Amino acid sequence: MINHDTVELLKECNAGIKMGVNSIDEVLDKVKDEKLKTILEKSKENHQNLGSETHEMLNKIDEEGKEPNLMAQGMSWLKTNVMLAMDHTDKVIADLITDGCDMGTKSLNKYLNQYEAASEDAKNIAKRLIKLEDDLAADIRSYL
Question: pTM of this prediction?
């Protein structure tokens, strides 16, 4: 029997992955620098692979994934579009993505603490997602 904390942690990871992929998709066609574009595309691919793994784990326990919070998604879309309308540069894109990574890492660490009885497999997914977010933020710092 899968415990509640495992299910909830996997759902939060699933929602976070979707939010990350959506955020990258939102800016990808606006990136000018090819190296930055490659970094973002690779991160998107890594997020999607981890998302597939998370989705498989949820399917095995007959659970559905979770969509990102609509308010958070809407605010992210608004902030992205307003900032890029004012200053359409790779620096702004890097800033937006870095902010998203920081918020994702913060949320995921909160969920790891909140769902402490989750399985080691679910915790491993969360930790790998945190590493993806941290790595992406580090990889694009030179564009800030």
Answer: 0.90
